[in-house]
Amino acid sequence: MAGLRMDGVVVAEYAKTAEAAADDLDAAAADVGGEGVSAESYGELGARIGLGESYGRASSALRRQLTDGAEALRSAAEALRQVTIRHSGQDAEAAELIKRAGRLD
After folding, report:
1. What is the rounded CA–CA span in Å between residue 84 and residue 45?
2. Cα separation of 67 and 50, whole Å?
3. Which residues contact 18 (CB under 8 A, 6 or more apart)?
4. Cβ neighbours for 66, distance < 8 A, ≥ 6 positions apart
5. Is the dihedral of CA 15, 18, 22, 28 positive or negative?
6. Closest of 3, 24, 13, 20 to residue 83, by C-alpha
7. DSSP letters of 39-84?
8. Residues 37, 47: Cα–Cα separation, whole Å
9. Which of 1, 33, 89, 99 is the most buried (most CB within 10 A)?
10. What pLDDT digit, counting tens, does each position of 50-98 carry?
């Protein structure tokens, strides 16, 4: 693509940042849950209106969203790494062509 410039170092850093963010989301997903919360935690009214079950569904949905987000970030990080690899390969090919052209003169 003519006119498109890419700094492989910057793109590689974005990949690392995305990977770190995915790890953070995984850690957050691991912390979401109802450990230590019992039916008594919500009291009689909470039990009557199903607060425990409601919290369980909400925490499951949040955990799923965090896990999906982490997966998406890891996928993006891998795509960025592939772009960097391809770009650096093209640079190496171009350098070799320039060297060969210089030898032909």
Report:
1. 57
2. 26
3. 73, 74, 76, 77, 80
4. 25, 26, 28, 29, 32
5. positive
6. 13
7. GGGGHHHHHHHTHHHHHHHHHHHHHHHHHHHHHHHHHHHHHHHHHH
8. 12
9. 33
10. 888 888 889 999 999 999 999 999 999 999 999 888 877 666 666 666 6
